[in-house]
């Protein structure tokens, strides 16, 4: 589904990614972890073309993200992205947040878009908040709205960048629960997170990054059972 091949990227003179290679198969859940500044956000931003890379290749369902001339708007409409800070449209109601791109990008009718929005909100237990603005919701509720908004586009894969890092501790689980359910339904997911409980529970593989490189890319149980690099061992000892 997602293939990242020998990807390297620079911000000016600074090399942020070095020769990164990994794959995410259809229905697979891959957790990306590693110290702050190791390039995790940059790597997943490259996957939906939010950041260009200078070397290497990324394909999503065989569409070359890194090629010039690829229709990135169309690509992004097929890959859901959820960020740390929700990034909902603050001046719109929850309903409008979920309908906008469905109508503008996918050309769905108003009725279709609203029906989809209602169904998704019901699933995450937020039906009663559909007329509210994001500011009236808790962080956990806003993040569930953001996940629903991404799902409204019927994405082929979902990318998450530290979706619970900005939340108060008591709200983390309500968001992780939605993600666990999504994973169990077979969604292809790439998740940057430090929630190792989540990783253990649903990840098929763990990718560990350090200083812009993929240091480990292994089945979850192997990664936690016997990390092969000192850097991963050191990282795990600090966060577990
Ligand atoms: P992570 O998500 O693992 O914390 P990032 O991908 O955000 O790492 O950042 C990796 C490195 O690239 C950091 O050193 C960061 O300061 C740098 N960086 C990130 N974005 C930019 C940018 N737009 N311009 C220059 N440097 C950046
Ligand atoms: Mg980051």
Verbal overview:
This protein is an alpha/beta fold and 240 residues long. The protein has nine helices and ten strands. It has helices at 40-47, 72-78, 94-104, 110-123, 139-151, 169-184, 196-202, 220-225, 230-239; strands at 2-11, 14-24, 29-33, 55-60, 63-64, 79-82, 157-161, 188-192, 205-210, 213-219. The strands form two sheets. It has a six-stranded mixed β-sheet, with helices on both faces. Helix 3 packs across helix 4, helix 3 runs parallel beside helix 5 and helix 5 (139-151) packs parallel to helix 6 (169-184). The protein is globular. It binds adenosine-5'-diphosphate (ADP) and magnesium ion (MG). Residues 40-41, 161-162 line the site of magnesium ion. The site of adenosine-5'-diphosphate (ADP) has 11 residues, from strand 2 and helix 1. This is Amino acid ABC transporter ATP-binding protein. It is a peripheral membrane protein.
How is the topology of this model organized?
Layout (H helix, E strand, L loop, with lengths): L1 E10 L2 E11 L4 E5 L6 H8 L7 E6 L2 E2 L7 H7 E4 L11 H11 L5 H14 L15 H13 L5 E5 L7 H16 L3 E5 L3 H7 L2 E6 L2 E7 H6 L4 H10 L1
Parallel strand pairs: 3-8, 3-9, 6-7, 7-8
Antiparallel strand pairs: 1-2, 1-4, 4-5, 9-10
Helix pairs in contact: 3-4, 3-5, 5-6
The structure holds adenosine-5'-diphosphate and magnesium ion.
Subcellular location: Cell membrane
Protein name: Amino acid ABC transporter ATP-binding protein
Main location: membrane
């Amino acid at each position: 589904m997602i293939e990242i091949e020998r990807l390297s990227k620079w911000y000016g003179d600074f090399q942020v990614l070095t020769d990164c290679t990994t794959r995410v198969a259809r229905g697979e859940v891959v957790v990306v972890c590693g110290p702050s500044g190791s390039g995790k956000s940059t790597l997943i931003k490259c996957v939906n073309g939010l950041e260009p890379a200078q070397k290497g290749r990324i394909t999503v369902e065989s569409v070359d993200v890194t090629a010039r001339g690829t229709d990135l708007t169309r690509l992004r409409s097929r890959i859901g992205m959820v960020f740390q800070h929700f990034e909902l449209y603050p001046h719109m109601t929850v309903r409008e947040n979920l309908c906008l791109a469905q109508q503008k990008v996918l050309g769905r009718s108003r009725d279709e878009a609203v029906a989809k929005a209602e169904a998704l909100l019901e699933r995450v237990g937020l039906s009663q908040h559909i007329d509210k603005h994001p500011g009236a919701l808790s962080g956990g509720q806003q993040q569930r709205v953001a996940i629903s908004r991404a799902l409204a586009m019927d994405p082929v894969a979902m990318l998450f960048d530290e979706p619970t890092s900005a939340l108060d501790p008591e709200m983390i689980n309500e968001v992780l629960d939605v993600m666990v359910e999504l994973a169990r339904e077979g969604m292809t997911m790439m998740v940057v997170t430090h929630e190792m409980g989540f990783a253990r529970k649903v990840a098929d593989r763990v990718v560990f990054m350090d200083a812009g490189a993929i240091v480990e890319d292994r089945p979850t149980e192997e990664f936690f059972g016997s990390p092969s690099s000192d850097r991963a061992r050191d990282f795990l000892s600090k966060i577990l």
